[in-house]
Amino acid sequence: MAGLPYRSPAAPGKLAVVRFEDVGSHTIVQNAGSKDGFTLFATSITYNVVSPDSSAVTESRNLGPARFASPADADRWKMAGRPRLPDRRTTTGYTESQAGQFSFMPQGTTLTYGQAANMPARPAAVIAVVRAHLLRYAGPRAPSELVLKQLGFLLAVAPLSRKARQAAWMTLAGLPGARLCGAGTDILGRPGEGICANVPTEKIEILIKPSTAQVLAVIQSLRRPTALFPDIPAGAVVGSDNFTVVTS
Q1: Beta carbons of 101 and 55 less than 8 angstroms apart
Q2: Per-residue pLDDT tens over the stretch 156-197
Q3: Pair 244, 23: CB distance under 8 Å
Q4: Bridge partners (DSSP) listed for residue 198
Q5: For residue 194, which of 162, 220, 168 has the smallest C-alpha distance?
């Protein structure tokens, strides 16, 4: 993967605007852990335009109403008194991030455009940067599945230089517990190969197009049922980010 010629959205010396789409699938859980708990699935799309000063404009749109995960979830919603469900009408909303606010990592402190463009070109330095941004979120020993997720987003959409991109792939390959986990498809039906890391109840997977080293999606699924996701069986996807139109 490190040697394949997939072009990063931008690189140092060419500070272009980065544009990408993220088709996201996620769960909405209400009354988690109680006998009246129920789960819904929802899908949305965001269009992101990120400037070199790490300001950004994000357009978000819901892709239809949320749906109950199972008939049992609908029954528990009724038993709970039919509480108001999230408003998922197909409307468009805009969010503006000021200079320095947009982050290319989904968790931890902000990793700006400039920090991504100047990401170091050694695997040990790359993981040090990622762990430093996760320090307040996960402590000094952020688990491999959390690091894997951040690397997936960076490789998918961040303006990494070619050498930094190679180092990020080497970092990912060296993560304790990371492994190849076979063929799969993302929410858009695109086929790829997975790299995964686990915790006791969940699996994080980066789905890759092997011929180009393009990260298609970052996927979270359940390894076993848990009260945090009522009625969701083992193996079900509970969240995914599916990346398209990554350009600069």
Answers
A1: yes
A2: 999 999 999 999 999 998 899 899 999 999 999 999 999 999
A3: yes
A4: 203
A5: 220
Both structure tokens of 162: 């070619």
Q: Dihedral sign, CA of 20, 144, 211, 44? A: negative
Domain spans in the chain, listed from the N-terminal domain onward? 18-247
Q: Mind listing the pLDDT tens digit for each residue in 109-129?
A: 999 999 999 999 999 999 999
Q: What is the pLDDT of residue 180?
A: 92
The answer to whether 61 and 44 are in contact (CB under 8 A) is yes
| Cβ count within 10 A of residue 39 | 25
Give the side-chain half-sphere CA count within 13 A for 26.
11
Question: The dihedral of CA 127, 130, 131, 132: what is its sign?
Answer: positive
**Crossing angle (nearest 10°) for helices 123-138 and 162-173:** 70
Structure tokens at 240: 């995914």
Q: State the Cα–Cα distance between residues 160 and 61, nearest whole angstrom.
A: 28
CA distance 241 to 187: 9
40 in Cβ contact with 79 (< 8 Å): no
Task: Find the helix or strand (DSSP H, E) in which 116 lies.
Answer: helix 113-117
The values of phi and psi at residue 79, to 5°, are -65, -30
Q: How far apart are CA 52 and CA 80, in angstroms?
A: 48
In the three-class reduction of DSSP (H, G, I as helix; E, B as strand; rest coil), residue 75 is classed as helix
